Amino acid sequence: MRIAILSDIHSNLPALSKALSIIGHIGVDELYCLGDIVGYGAMANECVDLIRTHATRCVVGNHDLAAIDPSQSNLLPKPGRLAALWTNKILSRENTAYLSSLPFRIETKSVTLVHANPARPEEWAYVGTLDDAVPQFAHFRTPLCFIGHTHIPFVCGEDLKTFYLRKGIRSLVNVGSIGQPRDGNPQLSFGILDTDAWSFEAIRADYDIETAAQAIIKNGLPDILANRLFRGI
Fold first, then answer.
1. Is the dihedral of CA 63, 65, 66, 67 positive or negative?
2. Res. 75: pLDDT tops 90
3. Which terminus of the chain has a lower count of CB atoms within 10 Å, N or C?
4. Mind listing the pLDDT tens digit for each residue in 7-43?
5. Distance (Å, rounded) from C-alpha 91 to C-alpha 47?
6. Stretch 208-221: mean pLDDT, rounded?
7. CA–CA separation, 37 vs 30, rounded Å?
8. Secondary structure string (H, E, C) spanning the chain
9. pLDDT tens, 159-198?
10. Which domains are seen in the chain, by residue range?
11. How far apart are CA 219 and CA 185, in angstroms?
């Protein structure tokens, strides 16, 4: 089975649309989303609509919660907080209900899905270093755990020496960000898991950044949220 795994879309419709186009060309059996469908960007309803249509499994992210519960936005830096409050005002009733229904964690036979980390998925701690990764393996039982949140893709085996999928070695995999990459590469990022071949392919692709940035500016959101898209930070 081939599974597309997306994370951190952040209301970036051009990026999500491009990713879905690529996925359609590749052909997959299922699509999983790791949360933060909204936040930062200006096309929240459009992105939630697409995820509701295409995702077979989805967990909630911290920006999703902030958008449906403004009190949660206090945990975000100012640009993110302003975007969350704006998103709260424009989300449709159906999309608010959808985000409210999403769990913090999903487990299948092969994978665990969380937004930030498997140890305490509701507390949003970052996993960005090998030291951060070490304690996480005690908190999932499946061969793989997929995360987002840092917007920086990686694969880390439990032995801390294997940085690709290898049978017999459990792995923590960050698929990066569709809508706001932060690894210095502005291209959208997601991954394709092939459970038969036991492989994970990281996908990077250009998209229409200008349209995403202009929508942010047009809707009065902080300029930094538009400018950073061009630099991948």
1. positive
2. no
3. N
4. 999 999 999 999 999 999 999 999 999 999 999 999 9
5. 11
6. 98
7. 17
8. CEEEEECCCCCCHHHHHHHHHHHHHHCCCEEEECCCCCCCCCCHHHHHHHHHHHCCEECCCHHHHHHHCHHHHHHCCHHHHHHHHHHHHHCCHHHHHHHHHCCCEEECCCEEEECCCCCCCCCCCCCCCHHHHHHHHHHCCCCEEEECCCCCCEEEECCCCCCCCECCECEEEECCCCCCCCCCCCCEEEEEEECCCCEEEEEEECCCHHHHHHHHHHCCCCHHHHHHHHHCC
9. 999 999 999 999 999 999 999 999 999 999 999 999 999 9
10. 2-231 (3.60.21.10)
11. 25
| Cross-strand bridge partners of residue 114 | 105
Q: What is the pLDDT of residue 190?
A: 98
How distant is the alpha carbon of residue 32 from its chain centre?
A: 10
The tokens for 118 are 């498997």
For residue 32, give the amino acid letter. Answer: Y
User: Which two three-digit tokens encode residue 56?
Assistant: 């077979």
Angle at 186 between CA 29 and CA 116, to 5 degrees: 60
CB burial of residue 205 (10 Å; 0-12, 13-18, 19+): middle
Q: Which amino acid is at 142?
A: T
pTM (whole model) above 0.85: yes
User: What is the C-alpha to C-alpha distance for residues 138 and 175, in angstroms, rounded to an integer?
Assistant: 20
Neighbours of 157 (CB within 10 A): 19
